[in-house]
Design goal:
Blueprint (H helix, E strand, L loop, with lengths): L2 H19 L2 H12 L4 H8 L3 H13 L3 E6 L2 E6 L3 H16 L13
């Protein structure tokens, strides 16, 4: 694999992760799944969203290759698609909380 191809692959992967993390519900799902696999209904209840919203957000995360589902009877159980995501999310939390925990909070945000 050439350096250019690897760079494009890495860029695409980071863009997918960034897209996933840009939405508070998707971020909440990823953070919940880093602790343990879960059912969509449980995720919806814990994040305070409708089951339809949860279904849409899980479809997005599946499409990005970040989560996968496993059939469990009539239900599906979700987990992170790669174990490396757990440590990556943990590291991102450390960086974000260390750098500027109040950035982008409230009406004073200048990032938008």
């Amino acid at each position: 694999m050439s350096t250019a191809t690897a760079t494009l692959s890495h860029t695409a992967a980071l863009a997918r992760l960034g897209h996933a993390l840009a939405d508070p519900t998707r971020s909440g799902i990823l953070l919940a799944l880093r602790r343990a696999p879960a059912y969509p209904s449980d995720l919806a209840d814990s994040l305070g969203v409708s089951r339809q919203v949860m279904s849409n957000q899980l479809a997005c995360l599946r499409g990005c290759g970040l989560v996968e589902s496993t059939p469990d009877g009539r239900r599906a159980r979700y987990r992170l698609a790669d174990a490396h995501l757990t440590s990556a999310l943990d590291e991102l939390l450390r960086v974000v909380l260390h750098v500027e925990p109040d950035c982008c909070a409230g009406d004073g945000c200048t990032c938008a």
